[in-house]
Amino acid sequence: KKVYSLLILALVLTSSMKAQTQFWSDNFEDAGSPSSGSRVASITEFISCTSPSLSYFKRTTGAEISPIVFTNFSGSKFWAAMDIDKGSGCGANNTISAGQSITWSGINIAGKTGLSFRGLFGANSAASFQGLPFLPSTDSMSIAYRINGGAWVKIVGVHCNDNTASGGTMGFDLNGDRIGDGGAHTLGNALSEISANITGTGTTLDLRFNIFVNNQHPGAMAFDNFRLYSS
I need a surface site. Which of 19, 159, 177, 186 has the fewest CB within 10 A? Predict the structure, then answer.
């Protein structure tokens, strides 16, 4: 009985040692986000002159982008984007690039192992997004990381589920073919979570979110509550 008890205790301790612990987050609130390091967007947050806005790239409570309603985000704010290339004015398409990014730098990972990422993503289920037939103008979201200033490694991809010119809903791409995997992996207005492992160790980690969306109303995307874990 003592031997069995020791074995059980060892298993419990091993399981506890491998449990994931959150050590970094950014839920886009006004205070305390990100929890460490810096966040820099490729362009200044903007919202167009129309009301409700039909072109934006910014942190929002959702009120400015009505009638598109996103749910299941964390806290009071999330980041939303639609028809980015029109920019902040009421002008024509291609005023700015529809491809933008957000980079988090200087996240301390010294002594940490078993790293992983988690985040919430959504895309308006009423929209028809552009897939591979529209290259290079394909709607997408992705997450990449680098350690100690090394090469960027993509770990999360969100792409159109429909690989035809018809377009369709967005979904998580689990096999790296830049096509959403549909079904339970389809994104909707209720943000859903995906997790991905981060390989390697070091002292500092940088995280990058990339997005491309020139889809007009109702082609909105949203994301929130990015977190990093270690074991």
Answer: 19
User: Is 214 in contact with 98 (CB distance < 8 Å)?
Assistant: yes
- Cα–Cα nearest to 35, from 139, 86, 107: 107
**Count of beta carbons in the 10 Å neighbourhood of residue 63:** 7
Alpha carbon distance 25, 74 (integer Å): 11
- Provide the pLDDT for residue 48: 85
Exposed, middle or buried by CB within 10 Å (0-12, 13-18, 19+), for 186? middle
Helix then strand then coil, in percent of the chain rounded to 5, is 10, 40, 50
- Please check the confidence at residue 175 and state whether its pLDDT lies above 50: yes
d(CA 224, CA 35): 14
**CA 62 remoteness from chain centre:** 17
Asked if residue 92 has pLDDT above 80, the reply is no
DSSP state of 41: E
pTM metric for this prediction: 0.90
Q: Is 191 left (phi over 0), alpha (psi -120 to 50) or beta?
A: beta
